[in-house]
User: Fold these one by one.
Assistant:
Number 1:
Amino acid sequence: MEKNTLLTISERTGYSVSTVSRVLSGKAQKYRISQAAVERITQEANQCDYRPNLVAQSLRTQKSQTIGLLVPGIENPFFATLSAIVIELLGARGYHTLVADSGESEQEELNALQMFQSRSVDGIICVPVSSSPELHEKIGRRIPFVLLDRYFKETTLSYICTDNFTGARMATEYLLQKGYRNILAIQGVPASMPSQERVRGFLSAVNSAGARGTVVGDAFSVENGFREAKKAFSRPQHSYDAVFAFSSTILLGTIQALRSLQLKPARDLGVISFDNNGFLDFLDPAITRVEQPLREAGSKAVETLFDIMDARRHSLPEPAPRQLLIQPTLVVRDSC
Amino acid sequence: MEKNTLLTISERTGYSVSTVSRVLSGKAQKYRISQAAVERITQEANQCDYRPNLVAQSLRTQKSQTIGLLVPGIENPFFATLSAIVIELLGARGYHTLVADSGESEQEELNALQMFQSRSVDGIICVPVSSSPELHEKIGRRIPFVLLDRYFKETTLSYICTDNFTGARMATEYLLQKGYRNILAIQGVPASMPSQERVRGFLSAVNSAGARGTVVGDAFSVENGFREAKKAFSRPQHSYDAVFAFSSTILLGTIQALRSLQLKPARDLGVISFDNNGFLDFLDPAITRVEQPLREAGSKAVETLFDIMDARRHSLPEPAPRQLLIQPTLVVRDSC
DNA sequence: AGGTTGTGCGCAATCGTTTGCGCTTGTTTC
DNA sequence: GAAACAAGCGCAAACGATTGCGCACAACCT
């Protein structure tokens, strides 16, 4: 009920608010506060269980011990996992995470980033959905900013992403090497960099092998996977001999569709996926896929962000933007 | 570079900070601000793209448009999914989410809850780890508070949880009915209400059927599932004919262990799981399980929280605590 | 003319911290 | 005995918003 602020402690101890503040924020040394004062004040603070008001602290210091995390769809297991990893890593460094969801909308992304600003977050980790980095770079000038999972072609911002081109190429080449010649790729959000790069990698491999490749789909969702697979494999005269699902959600939808058509991976056609859900090993057959090292990406992103934050804190020269394409790995199982 | 605050707008328009504030927070009517003033001020605000400083706003109003979400382990897919759902639902209501992770530690839980307080969150959704509700109730008096997934036996707080007792009973009875007589249950964190209730339900069913039931394990993790299953089924003289995994993480570990021992669900023993990961349908065999309606729980929790918030906002009498045990459903597949 | 009512706006306190600067004392130095 | 310095602490101005109260003026009524 009764409030505990610097003021009340100040009144109860007879010391000024300034002194109380300095003692309780551990600056007693620096300001040469007497031992007596330190003791009296800490005692009182302990007794009344004083906790600084973080809002007031943020207002005054323009810091908040909080990082803003912006993803385009937290309901997607991929981003849920990625978020979980980032939240965990930030927590380990004593930072809290404010999570926002842009829902693949540029407008929402704008809102969220502005919200982050006006809350004085100390840094931002963002899976961008916009087509141009201007806004991000502008904000990045004031607030340490790292792009994750998606990036911009030309930008001064740091980013940590999977090398989706190479990954898709690897997957496709593996299919080709296994003898599949007419591959259906089901992609995610076409405007997103990962999908585009995967399409590029896919087509590049298919073309240089003189095979046939088709790209369909428009979302990183189970439904999209189901719909597109169903549509493609329902047509009697289709001639696909393999499917490349661009995410594990798409894969699940695809498998559902195949089942409903009595088709089985490996037996009736080749199936390969892009993504890193451990449970792919538990499917029957286990799914061959290109795995993204999600934890590594999250961890590098957090690390990069803190490097920038540290540099700014000590007004050192900004480290050169770290622009990383993490190599995914082909995990061979039994689906093709 | 140039700041935009009420003060700067005030200077540029010639109106006082008060007037600018009232116009920009939509209270022009209420305070009878002239049309001229409203126009001049909104124009200036638009032009300089003014955004209120949410930190200052929070400090003044004690509101933050933010809900604190506390879970005991965001890296666990169950909580990752639950968090994602809650974050999404809160977002839809215009609220942001501050996520904290207690890591199953009471101390961390305490910290997080205090942090929430001192940040003036407008409400808290919490998966508790403490054994007693005192702290939670105390905070609940100041801040709308809802428990999710775990609850306390005697509490005045609202909670939304799965009926774990009934769920476990259902699962076990199904196994018994299928003829299994010696069941190994691998549980999660033993101190947690869900695990305890599931153990109760399990033993209750086993005992009243005169069958044998054993409980082992101590974490909601893949590793725990692997370790316990491996240990149990490695012993040549073991006589278990079925496994009940208390979560899908535990299940995955169990399956790994079984595989390593050349054992297969359904063929060699019965397997049943507690949890709601859609991908259980994609395993071979598909896993029979008790499903918790996660989205429903999240949604009810959010709804309940907002009911409390609304009541307090209008200083209506607090609604009676809503204490809900959601019924899980048995989803029969092919693993037993 | 004097009183009432209404309109449009500003003053200043408040939320709880942080921090630059400077004011007292007391001690040392030459 | 004056100057110089250190030790220990407080004043007051920020940070940027909100809001109760009241002031000034015009319009209206009797």
Number 2:
Amino acid sequence: MDRRQKRTREAIFQAFTGLLSEKSFEKITVGEILERADVGRATFYAHFETKDFLLKELCEELFCHIFDSVSKPEIQHRHIFTCEEGDSVFLHLLKHLKNNDNNILKLLVGQNNELFLQYFKKGLLRLIKSQLSLFEERKSTILPEDFWINHIASTFVETVRWWVDHGMKESPETVAEYFSLAV
Amino acid sequence: MDRRQKRTREAIFQAFTGLLSEKSFEKITVGEILERADVGRATFYAHFETKDFLLKELCEELFCHIFDSVSKPEIQHRHIFTCEEGDSVFLHLLKHLKNNDNNILKLLVGQNNELFLQYFKKGLLRLIKSQLSLFEERKSTILPEDFWINHIASTFVETVRWWVDHGMKESPETVAEYFSLAV
DNA sequence: GATATTATTGAACACTGTATTCGGTATCGA
DNA sequence: TCGATACCGAATACAGTGTTCAATAATATC
């Protein structure tokens, strides 16, 4: 990939995430992105078909990064809720989020976070399904599987939303504890 | 209120909800609403400041209706999860939703439902808070109150979302059972 | 039933934002 | 150095929003 292309793409992402932490997606104009990224209009459209595609690609990049971090061999065999020999998968994710890479948390909060939460949940569903064998909970036998998986993932997302909405006062360990009690 | 005003307002709501069940809010143009409602452009803006205000007023009208139905004296003293002497509050809401008043379920599903779910959740939070004294669950003593209330409401919303997304095959009674087991 | 009031119409308008085009310029890889 | 290609920027077509106003129609009230 050409250096110019990388620089332009990165500048656009940078400007876009900055704007997203200030205002909702709908209110951001391509013009603002161009100005902040210092990029020509035609250049923008050479990289991204539309503003919506930009958002989509950003989401994919961010969550790919997040979920890659729990797909490492030494982590992925661990239980989602609890783990004796290190952080559970959920705790690992929480810590990762707390690092606030790429301002991802700013994007997960706010009014216009539906798309981000959607990507987050999609990744979680995949994660949970892939580790289904690790679950031996009572609920998995009583409730329909898809309801139950969906419930875990939703509670996961809502717990994070609650955490961030309240200023992330609690430690990742405390939130992980709340989650395992709630679910 | 003038008959003409009522007729116009109703026609706009009708056209709008119809369009909302077909496409997302952002993709609906005022022009489409006008055409379907058979109403002049100036008339529309005499009734609603903007397209966003229209959505807001529709939400308020719909959910006001829904939550009024569980605020009746004979219902509101009942427990949210279980009730010996009739339907629980949740079961009552599920039955009400199943009746599909005003196509509200079509609006709760689909891609662009975040605003509806937000209103739904807001109503639920108020409902749960107002009946806090009825809860004597173990979780309420272990978990922080706001986390716990938020968890109940979120699970409520996500359960309904799951139900609707899967075609509402289950009876309201079954879904109410799933909910009380999950939460 | 006559009349004053008020809602509605429809067309024209300014405005903002999207997405495309294209000739010229700067930067890159080899 | 040179050919390729990414970028610039200005112009442009286009779609949607929200406003205005004089003419018209429906309504409430007396």
